[in-house]
Amino acid sequence: MGEHMEPQEQAARQHQNRRIGSEEQKIRRIQAPIAGLSCQACAQTARNLLQDVPGIEAARVSFGARSLSLELLPEATIEAINKALARGGYEIPAGALSEDDPDSAIAFAQEMEDNERSRVTRGAWVAGASALLTIGLSWYHIHGTWMLISAGAGVFIGGRRILSDGLRAARLRAPDMNTLVGIGALASFGAAVIEVLSPNLLGGAGHHAHAGPMILAFVLLGRVLESRARARAGDALGMMMKLAPAVAHVAQDNEVKDIDLKELKAGTHILVRPGERVPVDGVVLIGTSALDESLLTGEPLPQERGPGERVHAGAINGTGALTVITEGVGAESALGRITRAMREAQASRADSQRLADRVSAFFVPAVLLISLVTLVAWLLGGAPLGDSLGRAISVVVIACPCALGLATPMAVVAAAGRGARAGVLVRQASALERLCAAEVIVLDKTGTLTLGEPELGSLVPVNPKANKKGLLARAASVEQNSEQPLAQAFVRAAREQGLPILPSDQFVAEPGLGVSALVAGRRIWIGSPKAAIQRDHEPAWVDELCEPLRAIGSTPVTMEEDGTLVATIGLTDRPREEAPKVLAALEDQGLQVQIASGDDPLAVEALLKTLDLERIPFEGSASPERKAALLTELGAEGRGTIMVGDGINDAPALAAASVGVAMGGGADVALESADLALMSSDLSGLLRALRLSRLARRTIIQNLGWAFIYNLLGLPIAAGLLTVFGGPDLPPPFAAAAMAMSSISVVLNSLRLGRANLED
Which residues of the chain fall short of a pLDDT of 50? Predict the structure, then answer.
């Protein structure tokens, strides 16, 4: 994205995957709209102003999204941030900084954009009317004072903000687009003054009075059109924000009351009527209905939901009434996480943006130098001062750092919005570029190649006389504390058999190994056979106990009570129907496909055989550390990697991959560690993500190519190159129009992503 951050690029990958530890708790991450940005150089200036503010760990300023992302230590204050930004003429609207209410921040951003567009529109009207009046006065040969008054109104009233911002940037030794446009407008007005005071001094074509206001009119009109197009590119974020209703129907004391969503607490019973949107994340207590979740997951068909099943904020209820107990409200709901992730993506940095950043750092000074050289060269060549000055002004005005600055961020904004509508949640802009460049894709098994809804197949006690139901009840009592899909299989089986699920204490989860807890005074441990061997059980004996389960394709799990192995349990999981087609398509696209699973190797092999995918290499019994090491090894070979997973066990591997992709419905830790998330559980979303990545990359290249070509051709033409060969001059107003159109064309090209077909 078009943003800047402190130059710790070596650690950027680890940083973006969210540091975990005590330091994490001390850092506040906030996002807010920022007013006053008009070009890429402005974003750089704003970032530089924040460098010296105490307590700012990292600052990112996005020109394309007009947003500010900060990581703050406790000593940082909002007052100090605003004071630093004010030096450059930038500001964060009052009330826009919200850590707990992202919808409020988004609303402030939209209000700020609307206000800015209105202000720029008024300036464009004043400058345009001034230019037309000045031209009219010229037609009627009314020159002198009246013409200067007319032109001056356009320059100093219509262009007041551009002039003040340009002057402020120059004082900070960070000249930007406003500086260039301001110089062009003032130089044109100065030439008009000279024409009035000394008509013969300039020579040449003359009539410079209308040029100043016309330059500003075209520039401001371009900004209005660009703003409207940019708003269209970001429509998906606003659409997501509006999915949740403002109130919830709360069931209290045998009556239903409407309560503001911001006042709703977790654990509240709410009523969702037919045809209404679900206001929060929760679990259905009473009722059954089909819910339309298409805008959240991209899944076109309504999904049946009943008691015990989760529903998400933003889904449209079908024909049945539901009573739901709330779990996630506002920012903590799935919808809140989606909008937060979209804001993060819009404010994040794409790899290709670095080129634009390097160019923008010296662009404005270089243009000013070219303009000066143009003026001197034409004067030395014998051209009249008026013509030479006009060409120098055209050079200043036609140069467009904005097109370069918008090339990448607008493509990312549009791609993030299109992805959200297709159930592909982009968390990091750079991931869009890396995804299509990857060579190897590694997939987890459970929840990725399978439905992630394991069922209890068989429970085999070590002691044939042991009570199976008692063992299952105690196992479920331990697993009730875990969010792993395998754990829920125990709980479901116990409930189906009417077994009691007992209170447990001192629950401990060891990723990749197992879980344990105290149940009825016994230390119960449930884990993989590999972990049982590590716990000093005889390897041959453990293998002997598990072999019958492996032979039928079940995933074996071992159970201990107070250190004694008491049972082996077989779990089964249905494969995803779309998995063979998706994996074949990945191979057709040139990707090397591998499987890395913490599951038993024989269970993985059985699944691949069922799916007719025996050709795909796999690694079973892979711990979280081993999965991460595998991705690191592949990356060390210089190969781009993709990791697809859904569980806590996959989080380290998701962070270690070039691009981590989390499956919908996965653990929160996995979603937080991923660069992209598939909001539905359909593996086909991976193909849509790859298609989106290729289209976004192509659009970025087109935008950057156009921006560079425009400036490479525009500057010589503005300098009068065509006149050397008998061609026409490019007057400053037309140069301003060309500059405005260059930015608009980049935005419009990016907007095509919003209509892209991701199913090919």
Answer: 1-25, 100, 205-206, 666-667
